[in-house]
Amino acid sequence: MYKLKQLSLSIALVASLGAMPLQQAHAQKEQVVQDGIAVKPLSRVRVLVPEEQLNEQAAQQYQQMMSQAQQKGALVPATDPQVKRLRGVAQRLIPHTPRWNASARNWKWQVNLIDNPQVNAFCMPGGRIGFFTGIVNQLKLTDDEMAAIMGHEIAHALREHGRERMAKSGITSVVARGAGALGAAIFGIDPSITNAVTGMVGQGVVLKFSRDEERESDLVGLDIAARAGYDPRAGIALWRKMGMLSKGAPPEFMSTHPGGETRIKDMEKHMNVLLPLYARAKGTTVNRLPAYRTNVALK
Fold first, then answer.
1. Residue 51 among the catalytic residues
2. What pLDDT digit, counting tens, does each position of 226-242 carry?
3. How far is the C-alpha of 43 from the C-alpha of 53, rounded, in Å?
4. What residues make up the domain containing 139?
5. Is residue 59 part of a domain?
6. 121 secondary structure, DSSP code
7. Total structural domains in the chain?
8. How far is CA 203 from CA 148, 165, 210, 252, in A?
9. Residues 67-83: pLDDT tens digits?
10. 3-state SS class at 289
């Protein structure tokens, strides 16, 4: 009787969690952001992770990272021209962020540059931005390309992807364990085998979430950059540069990031929406925009 009760609870749990995406899809069906890139409303699942707790942890982690960088002499000073460039780009992007998340009006924005060869950048919850010198120097970023990267990272924070991923990872883990228990109870399969298989399935779901987040951040980030007067075509040039650096990268289906060509196609597909925003910010029309020129020869 006890095992049957456990089995019933597992079935109910899996069924209720499985129904959540359908309910969200129905609620999201008609709500989109107009006049630019259209997105779904923020995921309801994210509320499973308290916002205050996440922001507090992000603030502590960011402060710790900057303190350690400063102790090691790796925190680039505010007087450095590259830091001034980064902060200048941020000042133009930030006014357009509340469109995507009203709480951004109250964020304590910070922008810092860390002397590290990594080709990377990030934006933590609450608007805490970090760039590594590797991404600036190795990609020889123009201001437009810098804005595309910064917009992308800011979009992750605005769309609360970290918070959503934490919640979904928890749900995926519960569903995977529930499915494993069902398989073991109904078919007599060794629980260690079912747990391993469902764990792999669950990990695949989490990877899919992450790829979707990356695609959304690409487009929302370019939307923000275009409104700030930065050419969204820089995103295409940027990923061609990235492609020249990322030889031997893992296949797309095993990565949390879409392949470079996939990203470029997605951006090109949405230029009919992005370029009018940029043209409007520049006080001109799309037909009068000059071709985008980066600063290196692209293959």
1. no
2. 999 999 999 999 999 98
3. 18
4. 2-14+33-53+135-288
5. no
6. E
7. 1
8. 29, 12, 11, 15
9. 999 999 999 999 999 99
10. coil
